[in-house]
diguanylate cyclase (Inhella crocodyli), 347 residues
Amino acid sequence: MEPDLAQLSIAVPAAQSVERLVRPLLRLLGNALGLESTYLATVDLAAGAHLIRFSHNTGSLQVPEGLVSRWNDTLCKRALDAGHTAVSDVPQRWGDAPTARALGIQTFVSEPIRGEDGALLGTLCAASAQSRTVGPDAEALLKLFSGLVASLIERERLVAALHAANATLADYALRDALTGLPNRRALMDELQRLLARAQRENRCLLVGVVDLDDFKAINDHHGHQAGDRFLQAVATRLLASLRGGDLVGRLGGDEFLLLALGPGVSPASPPSRIDTGEPASAAQHWAERSAQACLGDYDLGAGLTLAYGGASVGVVALHPQGLAADAALREADARMYEVKRARKLAR
C-alpha cells in the first residue's frame, strides 16, 4: 500500500483535470485491489443513464470507455441500494444484471462519488472475472480515492459553470436586450471583420440602414409597450428575410443595420460607393426585400393591429479598398436619407 500512496502523493498535486487525476488513480486502485478492471462512471439520474467515462483494464475483463447503460440495470445501483462496497459472487447475487452478465463480472467493488450537497455524481468501481476477496484496507483506499475524485469533479463543474456564465454575459454584452439582435457594438465588430474579408477577397461590402418611419407616432399614440412590441416584430421580420451570410442588428432606437459581403469587384480603387453593375443590383434588391419585410399589418397585442406603411431602407455596395468602417456606415446612412426624402415626396 505504501508505494501506491507515494504515487498518489505525486498524482494529486499534478492533476489539473478530472482525467489527469483519475487515470493514475485507476491504475493505483487496480494494483491495490488486485482486480482486472477499474473505472469511473458518471450518473445522470434524470435521464436514468450510467456512463463509463474512464477505465483501466489489465486482464481478460475489458470494461470499455463510453459504455452507456440504464442506471437501474447497473451493478453500481444495486451495490448502492444494498449498501455493499464489495461483492465476490455477482452471478449468484445479481445474475439478472445485463451488462455484468455480458462482461462476465464475478467480483465487483463500488464506492459512490458525491458532491458537497450529497448529490450522486458517479461511482468509482473495480471488477474482475474471478472471485476475489477485497480487504478493509483496500475498501478504505477506495473511499479515499472517491473523495479525491469528488472534489475535482466539483471543481470541474464549478469551472464549467463559470465559463458558461461568462459566455452568457459576453453574449448579453453583444445583444440588444429588447430584440435579441446583435447590438451596435457587435455590429461594428462584424463590420470591421467583413471589411477586412472583403479587402482580401476583392468583394464589395453591402451595408444598409433601416429607419422605421413614423415610429415616434406609434409610441405617442399607442404607448411605449406597443412600440417595443413593434420593434420586436420588425426584428423578427427582418431576420426572416435574410439570406445566407446576411446579418441584421439593431443600431439603437428605431434603426437597424444590414451587413453582408457582396459580389466581386476589381482590385482597383474606384469611389467607395458603387452605383452600377452587379454590386449595385445586389444592394437594390436587398433594400427592396427588407422594405417589403417591414411593410404590412402588425398584431401588437391587447387587441391592437397596426397597419404600417413601411420603413426607409438604404443599402449601398461599397468598394472595400481604402474604406473605413465609420465611412461605410455614413454611406449607408446617407443612402437611407435619400430614400426617406423620396418617400416623403411621394406621399
Residues 136-173 form the longest helix (38 residues). The first strand starts at residue 37 and ends at 44. Residues 2-170 form a domain with the Beta-Lactamase fold (CATH 3.30.450.40). The two ends are 92 Å apart (CA to CA).
